[in-house]
TrEMBL record:
Family, similarity comment: Belongs to the 'phage' integrase family.
Keywords, comma-separated and alphabetical: DNA integration, DNA recombination, DNA-binding
Domain Core-binding (CB), chain residue ranges per copy: 77-168
A Pfam family hit: Phage_integrase
Span list, region Disordered: 1-21
Protein name per its UniProtKB record: Putative integrase
Lineage: Bacteria, Bacillati, Actinomycetota, Actinomycetes, Mycobacteriales
The keyword DNA-binding is assigned to this record: yes
Bias (Basic and acidic residues): 11-21
InterPro entries: AP2-like_int_N, CB, DNA_brk_join_enz, Integrase-like_cat_sf, Integrase_catalytic, Integrase_recombinase_N, Phage_Integrase
Source organism: Gordonia amarae NBRC 15530
Amino acid sequence: MSRQQLPPQIKKIEVKNRTTGKPEVRYQVTTEAGVDPETGKRRQVRRRYRTEREAREALSSISAEAHAGTFVPRKTLTVSEVIDAYLASRHTLRPSSLSKLTYDLDTLRQFHGDKPIQSLTKADMDSMVRALTAGGTTTPKGRVRKPWGAKATNKVIASAARLLEDAKRQGLVARNVAEHVARVATTHRDMASFTESEVRQLLASLDGDRLAHAWHLALSGLRRGEIAGLRWDDVDLTSPHPSLTIRNNRVSAGGRSVEGDPKSFTSRRTLPMPESLRVALVAARERQHAERAAVGSAYRSGAYVVSNEIGDPYSPAVLSRYWREMLADHDMRHIRLHDARHTCATLMHLQGVPVSVIAAWIGHADASLTMKLYAHSQDDALRDAARSMFA
């Protein structure tokens, strides 16, 4: 059987091995690859392969991709360079959202930042996921990572998938290798909340607690970031109808606090103030005035409702730690600080407050989401309902 003749796009050439200096045979593919979308000119590709078979397969693949408009030319861009360009393009994101996205993509950068973006594989992504969930790898700051949970790991996968999808749309990569990376399985966790009697017990035990007003705000349905970001300018304590307005959100992202607009449009809201909360805030205001007088010129702005002894706002993560410690000090069962928000919505629901009103109070746009997430009945309420059915 005679040897098949090479197509005109493939040429057998001889090159010198840079290491040994000896001549070696290569098969050079030179072919048209469609139109460059940036210049509008026809694009020509020239690549070399070790074997004739590799060259023929490459020619077939390049021709098919050029015909379909999916051909991606070779580029030397690294993962880090693509991340930088992607973050610069996300100028419409809120500062807090951009900070969180930066943190997630910095994890990808730490593992594969120097790798050419076109060389990144699904196996690379899978190895990163395994390393995060196992722990033991070292951060750029020299810290040893603890095993990551499912939520944090899956956020990194999702952010990487969005990055690579954008790179694919730009023609920087042929495929999104993070698209089909398996998410880490999450364990089901029921939402927790205090009963009405537990809320009364907790509030009664807060006398003398410097952060009592923060816990009142949490049990009034505010998110942790809303508590940390609330300013005195947004609190009206003197009018006949005291109120507070949620217009700032202070969240943790990448180990630092970032401020921005509330979580959503409906999160920006003005709430009438219950008397117990007003009393707690008045006491907090007086305490901060006394602390300013004691500290003198070293006192900071004191602009935030929940501030430390020198007038600086708290990190949201610090508030969660103080919440845990406070519950332990009072022998209360532990629920997350965010669960205090669940408590507010659940107790409103059990007291017959319309779901649409609960949604407006806690800042949800969709009342059905409020029902799904927060308005879950508690065991004692279910027992009361059973008794009423058969009374």
